[in-house]
Amino acid sequence: MVVDDHPVVREGLAAMLSREADFTVVGEANDGQEALDQVAALHPNVVLMDLKMPRMDGVEAIRRLRQGYPEVAVLVLTTFDSDEFIFQGIEAGARGYMLKDAPREDLFRAVRAVARGESLLQPAVAARLVDRFQELSRRGPADDALSERELDVLRLMATGSPNKDIAAKLVISQSTVKTHVTNIFQKLGASDRTQAVTLALQRGLISLQ
């Protein structure tokens, strides 16, 4: 299954993959929510997932697929090569991570690898991921205490988003957001949202870019 919110890209990928004798494209989806619906109906072996999409982004869709359909292998195919996107995609449960400028043969190789239950990262992506893990290990346990979901909430807090908007963007309840905010305060030793964001920026946990 090919999941991408750009019709030309999605249809082009589907056509390219269909030309391979051992591939069958069983469906296409425009966003993460549609991908979940299609997986439930079509049961693909591999989902080729973009990350930046409307309604539900690829990271949240991957998390939900891992929970509901652990047998489905997810291969991220995106234009985003920042450490944040790479780390989130892998943390969510993707078996592979490729950039859209990768040669088609590399993409085919990645699809076959994740279908066999293996993991495959584009070399440039793998190098960035290694660098990120090394950076996290140098920071020590105090900075590593926040979960990836708490970091998601923290990044939205840094934009000034209220709990209601954070809940909508992350597709979680407001009570869950409140719990995350409380945990963030405790872990960072902060007394309010402004202090929490300030401490996170100082420690390099988030950025405003």
What does this protein structure show overall?
The chain is of the alpha/beta class and 209 residues long. It has helices spanning 7-18, 32-42, 58-68, 83-92, 104-115, 123-139, 148-158, 163-170, 174-188, 193-202, and strands at 2-3, 28-29, 46-49, 73-78, 96-99, 120-121. The chain has two domains: 2-136, Rossmann fold (3-Layer(aba) Sandwich), CATH 3.40.50; 148-202, Arc Repressor Mutant, subunit A. It is built from ten helices and six strands. Strands 2-1-3-4-5-6 form a six-stranded parallel sheet, with helices on both faces. The chain is globular. The model has no long low-confidence stretch (mean pLDDT 88).
Share of helix, binned: 55-70%
Q: State the CATH class of the largest domain.
A: Alpha Beta
The H-and-E topology, N to C, reads as EHEHEHEHEHEHHHHH
Strand content: 5-15%
- Please tally the helical runs, counting DSSP H or I stretches of 4 or more residues: 10
Mean pLDDT reading: 88
Radius of gyration: 18 Å
Adjacency order of strands in the biggest sheet: 2-1-3-4-5-6
- Which structural class best describes the helix and strand composition? alpha/beta
